[in-house]
Amino acid sequence: MVIADGFPGQRLTVVPRPLIREALQRAGTSHLVVTDCGYYPDARAHGMTRLNGIGQAVLIVCVRGAGWCEIGGVRHTVRAGQVLVVPPGEPHSYQADQDDPWTVWWLHVAGPDLPELLRTSRLTARAPVREVPDLYRVVGLVEEVVRVLERDSAATSLLVASGAAWHLLAILSALSDDPGVDSSPIDRARDYLREHLADHLSINDLAAMAHLSASHFASLFRARVGVPPLRYLTDLRMARARELLDTTDRTIASIAEEVGYRDPFYFSRQFSAIHGVTPRAYRAQHKG
């Protein structure tokens, strides 16, 4: 049995169509708008068949596992580290691999500038799959879309989502002309961690985006950085926490949440273990 959604841990947002129509008449989003977006982890039995296509382009970023897409009678394999783009109006089917189901971030985009963006990216019905050297960057943009549209579908949120989608399509267009030199996956992982302090991240997720096994990724990371990946993330979070304690009067709870700790008491214990004082005592110290 193939299912469209309903996966444990999934995130899914569908913008009401009247709001999409309004957005396409409004400055800032009149050229490109995100209509749907989501995240499907370990999406076993995920699949979709659209006999007549749809009015939006479908972008699927595979970060783990594999799947396939069929357009015009031709089946294309989609693996971790690749982006699938189905142009609007194209009848198609896609499905997660039965033995190694994909984990995907995805979005649908529409607008009058979409055909030109797809044309410059050279992603077509005949060649809908592209390898992405910097998967962290691409996932970060889709995740930004998902996060902002989960909050609400206000005009400002749709504008932010539109900008992120435009950036994503621009990256895909740049890859069509110059695949680029693949920089160190560890350096990209460090950049990704710095930009996603509040997210729940695992070694498996980071390794998958680097196209490495978890053990190999962890070994390379420690050799290059000097500490394990999750310890590095903790150090980044604590550095940001110290900055906020020094420069703002925000509550400990709000600072804890911004740096990835939903439980302020656990944050305080972690902070104390590293700094030898509680966050409150640290803030009271004379510094400078």
Helix content: 40-55%
Distance between the first and last residues' Cα? 63 Å
Structural class: alpha+beta
Major sheet: size, sense and barrel closure? 6 strands, antiparallel
Give me the side-by-side strand order of the main sheet: 1-2-9-4-7-10
The portion of residues forming beta strands comes to 15-25%
Rg computed from alpha carbons, rounded to a whole number of angstroms: 21 Å
Order of secondary-structure elements = EHEEEEEEEEHEHHHHHHHHH
Dominant shape: globular
Low-confidence stretches: 177-183
Count of individual helical segments: 11
Q: Report the strand count.
A: 10
Mean pLDDT across residues:
91
Task: Describe what this molecule looks like in 3D.
- Helix 6 (203-209) crosses helix 7 (214-225).
- The chain has helices spanning 17-23, 114-121, 135-151, 155-177, 185-195, 203-209, 214-225, 229-247, 252-258, 264-275, 279-284; strands at 11-14, 33-40, 47-50, 57-64, 66-71, 74-79, 82-86, 92-96, 103-110, 129-131.
- Strand 5 (66-71) and strand 6 form a beta hairpin.
- The protein has 288 residues and is α+β, with helices and mostly antiparallel strands.
- It has a six-stranded antiparallel beta sheet. Strands 3-8-5-6 form a four-stranded antiparallel beta sheet, with no helix packed on it.
